[in-house]
UniProtKB/TrEMBL annotation:
This is Glycosyl transferase. GO terms for molecular function: transferase activity. Keywords: Plasmid, Transferase. InterPro entries: Nucleotide-diphossugar_trans (IPR029044).
Length: 406
């Protein structure tokens, strides 16, 4: 992907293979003396037993410019939390494991519930939101970065390239989004981006017309990337989606809160692979079926909030237009894969497209039936306004869990 193409909507920062990791690391270490960097790792306990996280921790242990690492731990009991503490103990940086299921955290969640501000469902969105709350309570970092914890091909250069645009004081970027090719095991991966998001955005432009928001989303080479970095002053007013529309939701928030010139995407890897979700055609509440529906709803909600009118006829037309656009793109993906010695299962790819087409219609019906649905966790500014002591108590609970279960 070593090119220098710019489309004019957001800046794309490429890896032209002209600079070493050592040089980047040295510069970041200098900048980090005045712009502290915190990394957030939202993870499930099961990922501690997977093939990816061991290498991620080994790589991060060699990063000299990180001020703090915040690990959000989900789906863990007390014994598993103790094990997680030991697992991450090798990190030389200041770090904390936040046990999101601890009794103290449950008390705090109930406290938010009495105010009508508690997250509505568990998941990555809630995990990231809690970690951001702890970061805001610490009030000592200028930049936040987020990594997924299932990256099989992780290298610390990913972090260096991800944070550089928002750490360099000579740049004006407030947010950077990572992009990369999704390949692994001799296959072209990234089904939801390739077969849903890209053709859906093409179809939406044909059906509802030109929208600046659609051009903005289409500018991102990998909009579903879980790797992004932001200046921390943006975080207090960030609405985090509680469903599987997290990545698109964060991009939409950047569109709402930031000027396009302050958002960039940066190439962070030549080859990226992580665990793959099942398609789950038999169960719309799981896997890529649930993910695709939530992503569609997130995009539909944003367009509606900006004045786009949706009707049942619009969604039927959108489904048909998407289906044709997806099949056209599939031909290009197949050619690209063959030219690079990769495999694409045309049958399974078309099955995915058929499922995604049905889920576009399902998402549309869900939106029309409940247009006021707002699956966002309240911003930390709102929480602070309703309960000024909450952030301090959140930080205190996380530290108390660390001390008690050391």
């Amino acid at each position: 992907m070593a090119d220098f193409h710019q489309n004019g909507n957001i800046t794309t920062l490429h890896n032209l293979r002209t600079r070493s990791l050592e040089d980047l690391t040295h510069e970041l270490t200098v900048y980090a003396k005045t712009r502290r960097i915190t990394l957030i790792l939202p993870c499930l306990y099961s990922e501690l037993e997977g093939p990816a996280l061991e290498n991620i921790v080994e790589e991060l242990a060699q990063v000299p410019y990180l001020h703090r690492i915040i690990i959000g731990l989900d789906q863990a009991d007390e014994a598993q939390f103790r094990h997680a503490r030991k697992f991450f103990a090798r990190l030389p940086q200041d770090h904390i494991v936040i046990w999101n299921d601890s009794p103290r955290m449950q008390v705090l969640e109930a406290r938010l519930g009495t105010l009508g501000l508690a997250p509505q469902e568990p998941g990555k969105g809630k995990n990231v939101w809690s970690c951001i709350g702890y970061l805001l309570a610490c009030a000592d970092s200028a930049v936040m970065a987020i990594h997924d914890c299932d990256i099989l091909t992780y290298d610390r250069e990913m972090l260096a390239r991800l944070v550089y645009p928002v750490v360099n004081p000579g740049f004006s970027y407030q947010m950077s989004k990572g992009f990369y090719p999704r390949i692994g095991s001799g296959k072209l991966n990234g089904r939801v981006t390739r077969l849903l998001v890209s053709p859906l955005l093409i179809a939406l432009k044909r059906v509802v017309g030109d929208r600046d928001y659609l051009d903005y989303l289409r500018s991102f080479r990998y909009p579903l990337s879980g790797e992004f970095a932001m200046r921390t002053h943006v975080l207090a007013d960030l609405r985090i989606p509680s469903d599987w529309g997290l990545e698109v939701g964060v991009l939409s928030e950047a569109w709402r809160n930031l000027a396009p010139k302050s958002v960039c995407q940066v190439e962070i890897s030549d080859a990226y692979d992580h665990k793959h979700q099942e398609l789950s055609p038999e169960d719309a509440s799981r896997g890529l079926s649930r993910m695709s529906t939530d992503i569609c709803k997130a995009i539909i909600r944003k367009l509606a909030a900006d004045g786009t009118v949706f009707t049942p006829n619009v969604f039927r037309t959108l489904k048909a237009t998407y289906y044709r656009s997806a099949l056209d793109l599939l031909e290009g993906y197949h050619s690209d894969a063959k030219m690079n010695g990769l495999s694409v299962d045309r049958h399974n790819e078309e099955k995915s497209i058929e499922l995604f087409a049905e889920n576009i219609l399902r998402a549309g019906h869900m939106f029309l039936e409940n247009p006021h649905e707002t699956p966002f966790i309240p911003t930390w500014n709102r929480v602070h306004s309703a309960d000024p002591d909450f952030l301090t108590d959140l930080k205190g609970a996380a530290v108390a869990d660390q001390d008690e279960f050391a």
